[in-house]
Amino acid sequence: MKQRKASFEEYAGIVIGGLIYFFVYVLHINDLLIAFPALFTYQAGSSQIGYWMKYGLLFVFVYVFTYLAARKVIDEKIKKKYLFLIKSYLIGFFLWLIVVIVTYSLNCEIGDTTNLVGGYATMLIIILFMRYKPKRFTNCELT
To answer: pLDDT tens digits for 66-90?
Structure first.
């Protein structure tokens, strides 16, 4: 199996995505978190919802900006892979966000590490399910 060498644009997209995520999202999302009481508590800082909103979209940002930076030089197979990963990460992010909102409304506390591990594990499960989905889900027709 021949191994493909990543292009400069792909590496640049990873770096740019990480930097944009860090500077724009992490540093300025605190203003949003302080504005909404469900997302921020003055005793502990970010609530579990705010913590997941702050750190959950890391992979989405990296893959979106990698795709945007390298979309003109990569082949169709790699483009489909990036779009697949972006969709999977977004689905996993919103599924875990729903879990976090429900637990917050039930006054259940999820620790920061558990929150991140649970969210990233949900993203991984979504990726694995979408990659190796059973045959019964592939030929579904909406009636």
So the answer is: 787 777 777 788 888 888 888 999 9
Check residue 46 and report its DSSP letter.
E
Separation CA 5–CA 28 (nearest Å): 35
Domain that holds residue 81: 8-135
- Give the pLDDT confidence score for residue 41 in this predicted structure: 58
Q: Is residue 79 part of a domain?
A: yes
What residues contact residue 20 under an 8 Å CB cut-off, 6+ apart?
A: 61, 65
Closest CA to 39 of 28, 27, 56, 51: 51
Cβ pair 93, 27 in contact under 8 A: no
Residue 62, token pair as written in the block = 């990296």
What global pTM score does this model have? 0.74
Classify residue 101 by burial, with Cβ atoms within 10 Å: 0-12, 13-18, 19+.
Answer: middle
Query: Rounded to whole angstroms, how far apart are CA atoms 1 and 12?
Result: 26
User: Does residue 141 form part of some domain?
Assistant: no
pLDDT of residue 4: 61
Residues constituting the chain: 143
When divided into structural domains, the chain yields a total of 1
The verdict on residue 72 lying in a domain is yes
